[in-house]
Amino acid sequence: MEDRNILKVEDLNVFFKVNGGIVRAVENVNFQLKDGESIGIVGESGCGKTTTALAIMGMLPGNGYVDNGRIFFEGEDIINKDEKQWQRYRWNKISMIFQGAMNSLNPVMKIRRQIGEAIRLHNPTITKGEINARVVELFKLVGLDEKRINYYPHEFSGGMKQRVMIAMALACNPKLIIGDEPTTALDLMIQAQIIDLINDLRRKLNMGMIIITHDLSIISEICDRVAVMYAGNIVEIGSIEDIIENYKHPYTEKLIKAFPSIYGDKRMAESIPGAPPNPLSPPKGCRFHPRCHKSIDICKNVLPKYTSFGNRHFAACHVVKGDSLNE
Amino acid sequence: MNNDKVIEVNKLSVYFNARAGFFKDLIRKDKIMVRAVDGVDLSISKGEIVSLVGESGSGKTTMGRAILNLVHHNTGSLKFNDEAYDIKNKKWMKTFRKKAQMIFQDPYQSLNPKFMIADIVSEPLKFIEKKLSEEEIESKVVEALEFAGLKPARDYLYRYPYELSGGQRQRVAIASVFIISPQFIVADEPVSMLDASVRADIVKLMLQMKEEKGTSYLFITHDLALAWLVSDRIAIMYLGKIVEIGPAEIISGNCIHPYTQALISVLSNIDIKKKRKRIVLKGETPSPMNIPKGCRFHTRCPIAKEKCEKEEPPLIKRQKNHFAACHFSKRLI
Ligand SMILES: Nc1ncnc2c1ncn2[C@@H]1O[C@H](COP(=O)(O)OP(=O)(O)OP(=O)(O)O)[C@@H](O)[C@H]1O
Ligand SMILES: Nc1ncnc2c1ncn2[C@@H]1O[C@H](COP(=O)(O)OP(=O)(O)O)[C@@H](O)[C@H]1O
Ligand code: SF4
Ligand SMILES: [Mg+2]
Ligand SMILES: [Mg+2]
After folding, report:
1. For B184-243, how does the pLDDT look when each residue is reduced to its tens digit (9 = 90+)?
2. Domain B2-324, what fold?
3. In chain A, which residues have their Cβ closer than 8 Å to the Cβ of B301?
4. Parallel, antiparallel, or unpaired: how do β-strands B32-45 and B5-18 relate?
5. Candidates B37, B62, B188: which one to mutate for ligand 2, based on the most atoms within 8 Å of Cβ?
6. CA A63 → CA A18, A51, A55, distances in Å?
7. pLDDT, tens only, A258-300
8. With B214 labelled, which of A58, A75, A107, B12 sits at a CA distance of 20 to 30 A?
């Protein structure tokens, strides 16, 4: 397989204008995705996961804007495209399963029509017959019973609705798909089924994939690599194996140690002391320093640079020592 | 019989009249029953935490509500401190309400939005202790809020629920239950809507109540790992019935029922070196309006045989304190 990037995010800052000032939701975010690769983005609520994804989709809300940075899709910088050019990418090349979207299906429209509309919207010239054939094909692809294409959303369970959302995201054969909390709020066994489905689709369709979740175990089931976000920054990034077994950043360490294991010691998981910072005025220096068990003086004032640990594994922390990066 | 049982439930069933959906209701005349809880035995000892674990719709909330007599039960007998429920007796019920309380599933819905925190927390107390002075009530409210981790409590007294975060609301709900030191609490998914760090704090509070006051709990959750962590025994519920019950350790050790084993096999796990075998069940739990004959799990069971379609397996003792309802006892993981 040719080793090239399908997606490259460079020095991305995404801010929101709000009454009290500017929310620096995403700052200095860098990552790359090779063809067919899947990356997970993990972090606490509010750390900027969804915002990163919306920037990649060119779908930031009105008060949000890209302050800095570039996003390359197949080598082409897409950040400054106009809406018309965006439409060539959005849904056709990059598509997204939104957080909680399965609850926003139109309750009075049959599932077949809802998927059909999604297809037609992005291929205005397609015929009715082609749409119907495609809906049936998508139903099969995501493991739904094609006899149910004329059902209404309320006749579908949560797991089935999530399959519908996946089908819609696949409608135009995208090369990259972003799933924002695709299994959250589903029962354990249904989660497992959706994880199997996603893995199965990856094998069949060889898509790039970004999975956003606060549950590291889901990433470990689906993704090749993982980016750990804290308060708008990626603090560590690397292969699943490197992050879980050879983590470098103190925040990653806390995240992994907080993971409950019924095969480990029977004690309440350590929570990370303190609360995530106020996004309107994040702390100076390393944003994690007020909650960090390893912080030293320099952490309070200087933003740590990434150091490399080989195998595309990087962490941004003053305390851990790798090879410095001289760009 | 040793009688340290707080709650004893025998053959408890709760059926609801179902609507099959608007249109189907119009054409279908016969009544359909939702068998939400379908013949359950359960007892809880003093100072014991029993977790009730199952997927959504398995009947956990209904079971908890039936035990507190917040929903009518169709069959079964219930005992509280070795006394049969005397629900027609007002005096008995009043004592029962004082001693047995519920923490509800959703902190966004369980608090009355029109009441201030001080009123919400004092309400159960006023209902039970009519003779307390205003000062006594306030000092008890403050004490309960602080116990629930809302410090300084006076900052919260005159606020409304919408001014609090989800975690803070759940603490208010807990304070309003803890204020009357009940002997038995049904805690219905008390932490499932909360962030991990708040979750740990709230669970610690529950454990503290158990240690300090000998409180017993029915802890309802869909989180097996959390159940394993906090409880003495775990009951696994599937389609209105307990299919396995035993010491919390069966979860990490030798559970017997294929459903329990499947659930454990897909439990969140970041141990990438030791990838365990996953048993992903096909399809979804059947409707409680249409519970399969024989073993109710047979339609999804990976080891079902002919017998399972015909005979309902009883909950049989396997080891001390450990019961499972399966015709077999095969290890799958
Ligand atoms: N439209 C908006 N206006 C102002 N601030 C916003 C807006 N959308 C998001 N934010 C803020 O940006 C930050 C990042 O939000 P984002 O939705 O990306 O978080 P997330 O990591 O996806 O969290 P979760 O896990 O809860 O979904 C948060 O502080 C959030 O409050
Ligand atoms: N008041 C009610 N009327 C009709 N059906 C109900 C009612 N309450 C619960 N049910 C049904 O009973 C079953 C069990 O529900 P519940 O006890 O809430 O499950 P759980 O708490 O395990 O998610 C579900 O099928 C649910 O739809
Ligand atoms: S009784 Fe049969 S169907 Fe039921 S759980 Fe056991 S093996 Fe499976
Ligand atoms: Mg989000
Ligand atoms: Mg419930």
Report:
1. 999 998 887 666 666 777 788 889 889 998 999 999 998 898 899 999 999 999 999 999
2. Rossmann fold (3.40.50)
3. none
4. antiparallel
5. B62
6. 7, 12, 13
7. 887 888 888 776 777 777 888 888 899 999 999 999 999 999 9
8. B12
- Could you tell me the two tokens for A162? 């999530």
Q: Which residues line ligand 1 (CB under 6 A)?
A: A 16, 18, 23, 25, 43, 45-51, 61, 63-64, 99, 214, 279
pLDDT, tens digit (0-9, with 9 covering 90-100), for B139-163: 999 999 988 888 889 889 999 988 8
A256 close to B (CB below 8 A): yes
Given an 8 Å threshold on Cβ–Cβ distance, is B263 in contact with A244? no
In chain A, which ranges are continuous DSSP H helix?
49-57, 83-89, 111-122, 128-141, 158-170, 188-205, 216-222, 240-245, 250-257
Say what the pTM is. 0.89
H helices, E strands: number in chain B: 10, 12
**Dist. CA A15–CA A67, nearest whole Å:** 6
- Quote the ipTM score: 0.87
Q: Going along chain B, which residue ranges are E strands?
A: 5-18, 32-45, 49-53, 75-80, 83-84, 100-103, 184-188, 216-221, 233-238, 241-247, 316-319, 322-324
Pairwise CB contact (< 8 Å): B270 & A244: yes
What integer is the mean pLDDT of B80-99? 94
**B264 in A contact zone (CB under 8 Å):** yes
Amino acid identity of residue B64, one-letter, is G
Radius of gyration in angstroms for the set of CA atoms belonging to chain A, rounded to a whole number: 21
CA atoms within 13 A on the CB side of B308: 18
Please choose, from the candidates B186, B222, B192, the residue with its C-alpha nearest in 3D space to the C-alpha of residue B57: B222
List all residues whose CB is within 6 A of at least one atom of ligand 3. Answer: B 258, 295, 297-298, 301, 303-304, 308, 313, 326-328
Which chain B residue lies closest to A267 (C-alpha atoms)?
B229
Q: Each residue of B271-287: pLDDT tens digit? A: 877 777 899 999 999 99
Q: Would you state the pLDDT for residue B93?
A: 94
Alpha carbons A44 and A48: distance in angstroms, whole number: 9
pLDDT at A265: 80
Ligand nearest to the CA of A233: 1
